[in-house]
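FW: tagging you since you asked about this chain on Friday. Here's the raw sequence from the shared folder, copied in full. Didn't touch anything.
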Amino acid sequence: SVSSIVPESCLLIVVGLLVGGLIKGVGEKPPILKSDIFFLFLLPPIILDAGYFLPLRQFTENLGTILIFAVVGTLWNAFFLGGLMYAVCQLGGSGLNHIGLLANLLFGSIISAVDPVAVLAVFEEIHINELLHILVFGESLLNDAVTVVLYHLFEEFANFEQVTIIDIILGFLSFFVVSLGGVLVGVIYGVIAAFTSRFTSHIRVIEPLFVFLYSYMAYLSAELFHLSGIMALIASGVVMRPYVEANISHKSHTTIKYFLKMWSSVSETLIFIFLGVSTVAGHHYWNWTFVISTLLFCLIARVLGVLVLTWFINKFRIVKLTPKDQFIIAYGGLRGAIAFSLGYLLDYEHFGMRDMFLTAIITVIFFTVFVQGMTIRPLVDLLAVKKKQETKRSINEEIHTQFLDHLLTGIEDICGHYGHHHWKDKLNRFNKKYVKKCLIAGERSKEPQLIAFYHKMEMKQAIELVESGGIGKIPSAVSTVSIQNINPKTVPLERVLPALSKDKEEEIRKILRNNLQKTRQRLRSYNRHTLVADPYEEAWNQMLLRRQKARQLEQKVMNNYLTVPVHKLDSPTMSRARIGSDPLAYEPKEDSENLPIITIDPASPQSPESVDLMSEEPQGGCSGLPPSPEEDEEGLVMRVKEEPSSPGTDDVFTPGPSDSPSNQRMLRCLSDPGPRPEPEEGEPFIPKGQ
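HL: got it, structure written out here
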């Protein structure tokens, strides 16, 4: 019941305080959290767990925002806090006058960075939504490069007699070396781990060992050259995961997952307990002015930095950060054991005020973890901030998400705008075409995985059937349906379906998600600058002109020859509906040879232009030919046009012998049969022949 109110990290610190007080009470010296132990053994498991299971989609979509908060925000906090603390030291009396500008800037760089361990411990308990969680947690991961650079930079500058402009420029360039160098080291070790896992099919037991070994080697190699070890661990975890999971067995995947969770949980517990013990055991120098000023300026710098940066970021974001989101981001800037360990690393010879720095750092850590960590849950409920979606998305939602990604990539291609969807698609194609073939073993690099999975399940069921002895009793030529018909009276027992484990369900979901949405890739890419003219466009324009001339001609003929209003012709669709309602409505008429022949173009029966009056002359009368048996029936004689219609011509308005004024006149006269009696109720649409 206590852990629902107080975060677990606070309880662990209290346990550490009690243990340290107990050890000190019996006359022993309590152990102190040494920086080497923290950075070499306790921190890597937490960062590897975070990097290996990093939600990559949310992280990449918000990478720009995270980088601005991590780089610009941390620089702002460090220099704002260091400058104000230098002013406080100059005005604070005799006890603080000896602290120079570089020492205050070094202190500001230590205390300004958000701690990933504290953020993970608090934010995972309050179940905040994915956007806020990845913004604060991503900032705490990526600000390590800025912290490392500023820490080593000011530590070196403190030993210089004079700092020149060249030193400052080299210090600025070292930020790119430290951050990008750490990422490069992580990528190299991630590729090596993926390539090694390709050849472990016969030694499944040691597969998890390669993941831990290469990740730890990446961290140590980066720290060896003063690069960012945290960024190296994150990069190696992100790069190796998709290829390693495709190569290793299901049991190895489960081992990696739970061992990493257990290892990071143990490290987190030890870190917070040691923080409490070190608070009791360490040497402290309390200065009210310095400590209270540090705490106050930390809060002010965080709030101002988040407000200003969010105002700038919202100009470019589609999903804006609301004031509630800004408050949670500012309030979630927790400090933790990284700041304490960096302060503990300071040398007494160059920094005589080290004890006062450690006291202020511990005060800020306790305030952020206890006060902010305990009050953030009620504040989230009070402000009605969106919580994390506990239920998984359906496969339908995931497939549609992938479809929308593909659609947005096509839209960006058409617009000529190379956004992150475009580069993501390019990277996926390169990965599928080249990288997977090198890093994934055998048939697993080929698709479709869904069919391979089905064959695997079929083979497993067949083996189980053979082992149970059921296959020997069934003749090969007899189908299962006939087997059921042999003994129809036997009632089959209800089949108990085994419950799927969560890991198996996740594997099936992953296979379905990756294979149920397949998009066609065209060889030619669309470019708005190389548009080709439509070959049908000119033909359609000519057809429209012909229609317009034909309408004018019809109007002319109607004005010259008709004395009664023309009966409005039904469209072919309406005529088909009438005929379909009562096919027997057309009864034989006499003198069918005197009726015109109407040819129907079946290519497009829905369009009114598909009716072609090929021959309106009375059959047999003018030509002298005897009527055929088909034409001897009463009614309209319909023929299918033999030649196919081309899309560029309009057969209705093709000039021919039937377009003479006399034929037009005959058409209009035939179209007006005169007044008819109204159909009685129950009669068909088209009346029977008179």
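FW: The chain has 24 helices and three strands.
HL: agreed, and Residues 165-197 form the longest helix (33 residues).
FW: great, closing this out.
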